[in-house]
Amino acid sequence: MDKLQALRAFVVVTESGGFSSAARKLELATSSVTRAVDALEESLGTALLNRTTRQVTLSDAGKTYYARAWRILDDVAEADAAVTDRGEEPSGPLRVSVPVEFARQCISPHLGAFLLRYPKLDLDITLTDSVADLVSDRIDLAIRLGMPPPDASVISRHIGDFSRCVVASHAYLSEFGTPLEPEELSAHQSLRFSYGADQQVWTFCKNGQQCEVVVTGRLKTNNSDILREAALNGAGIALLPSWLVAADVQSGRLTRLFEDYEVNPNNTRSAVTAIYLPNQRGSRRISAFIELVTGAANLR
């Protein structure tokens, strides 16, 4: 019995829900897939699958074995990719974690061209605003907004910066007035991103002079697009990434305030950082995706 082939047959049968569909995916005869799984079960001395005429499901032993078998096959694929990925062309699987709205606005419009350019690369993108753990989440590359704290176990590569701006709708400004200086924000509803601290400070800088303004408001969330929608609907004034609201400002749906200032929340740097493990150093797959992010987001 070819143990690796049997593992692959078992995993594909499990994920396909049947032997015939697995055989089509593996481009094998159904009888060959059946024999491979039968041989695997015989060698283990236990049934991995519950089989009926209508469906195939995992037994209790099969559930445990499937998780391990999937990881083994994944490790083999990763080992193959680690060798072939040092060639001229990026190839193999690449698992990436990217913040939700950043991925939707800046990266997704360019994915088609990216995949056409690199036909040997298999891309798996997870959208999350949470901090992904590269090891436990099996992530090859995490793109993060801001500068993460130093961590000797990973490589943190600063790949660019973006700008932020303060915006509000014409309806809000017509009703509540337009603040001309940052200090006037204390009299307005600020739409705040959840950075962790209860009291939020927006830092403004102009001609080398810095001022900090404590902002308050009835809406706080950890999703930038919710803040954008609230601003569009006249709920208050928001501090948002320029890449998120550029089209709204250009169309007049949102008005940019304090254009002479650079602004950031608290001391958060407007940086984009690539995080990956040391064993991925020199990976053509990772370099290719970082190049995509840098160009797609017009990072400076």
Q: Count up the domains.
A: 3
Structural class computed from helices and strand pairing: alpha/beta
CATH class annotation of the largest domain: Alpha Beta
What's the β-strand tally?
A: 15
Description:
This protein is of the alpha/beta class and 300 residues long. The protein folds into three domains: 3-84, Orthogonal Bundle (Arc Repressor Mutant, subunit A), CATH 1.10.10.10; 92-162 and 270-296, D-Maltodextrin-Binding Protein, domain 2; 164-265, 3-Layer(aba) Sandwich (D-Maltodextrin-Binding Protein, domain 2), CATH 3.40.190. The chain is built from ten helices and 15 strands. The strands form four sheets. It has a five-stranded mixed sheet. Strands 11-8-12-7-13 form a five-stranded mixed sheet. The longest helix has 25 residues, at 60-84. It starts with a helix and ends with a helix. The relative contact order is 0.15.
